[in-house]
Amino acid sequence: MKNFFYKKGSTRTLSSKVSGFTLLEIIVVVAILGIILLTVLPQFSKSRETQVLNSAVGDVLSSLNQARAQTLASLDSSSYGVHFQADKVIIFKGAVFSAEDPDNQAVAILSPAMISDVTLNGASGSSGELYFARISGSPSKWGTVTLATPNASRIITISATGGVSAD
C-alpha cells in the first residue's frame, strides 16, 4: 500500500491523491444552483398567484351564496346583498348598502388578487352591489364580476335566477 502522506523531501507524483475541492469546482456548483433557482422561483411565484386568485374566487362565490341563503331563509325577516369593492366583498342586510352598518360582514380579498371590474345589468365599474329578493332568491342585478392578478383573471357570472358560477 502506498503512503499518501508526504515525507520531508519527497516530491509529489501523479499517482499521489489530494482530497478537497478546488475553487473552480465550487464556482461551477454555485453557478449551476443559481441557474436552477432562477428557473424554479418564477414558477413558485405563478403558482402562489394562481392559488390566491382561486381563493379570492371561492370567497366571492361563498359570499354571494351566503347572502342568497340568508335571504331565502328570511333571516331576521330581511333580504341580504353583496357590495363589491376592489379589495373586499361586503355582505349587507337589507336592500340598500350602508358602509356604516355594524351588521356588515366584510370578506377581504388577498393581494395580489383584486376585483378589477363589476358589470351588473350593463353598468360597469370597479364597485357595485346587488341584493336578493326574499321569496324567489333572484338578484336585483345580474352580470359579471372579474377578479384579476397581474398574470391571470377569472370571471364570476351571476344569473338572473340567482345562480352563480365561475369560469
Description:
The chain has 167 residues and is an alpha+beta fold. It has one domain: minor pseudopilin epsh domain (minor pseudopilin epsh fold, 3-Layer(bab) Sandwich). Helices cover 30% and strands 26% of the residues. The protein is built from one helix and nine strands. Strands 5-4-7-8-9 form a five-stranded antiparallel beta sheet, with helices on one face. A hairpin with a 3-residue loop joins strand 1 and strand 2. The chain is elongated.
**Helix content class:** 25-40%
Number of domains: 1
Order of helices and strands: HEEEEEEEEE
DSSP strand count: 9
Low-confidence stretches: none
Query: What proportion strand?
Result: 25-35%
What's the overall geometry? elongated
CATH architecture level-2 label: 3-Layer(bab) Sandwich
End-to-end CA span: 73 Å
The major beta sheet can be summarized as: 5 strands, antiparallel
CATH homologous superfamily title: minor pseudopilin epsh domain
From the alpha carbons, calculate the radius of gyration and give it in angstroms: 30 Å
Task: Examine the coordinates and then state which fold CATH places here, giving the name of the CATH topology.
Answer: minor pseudopilin epsh fold
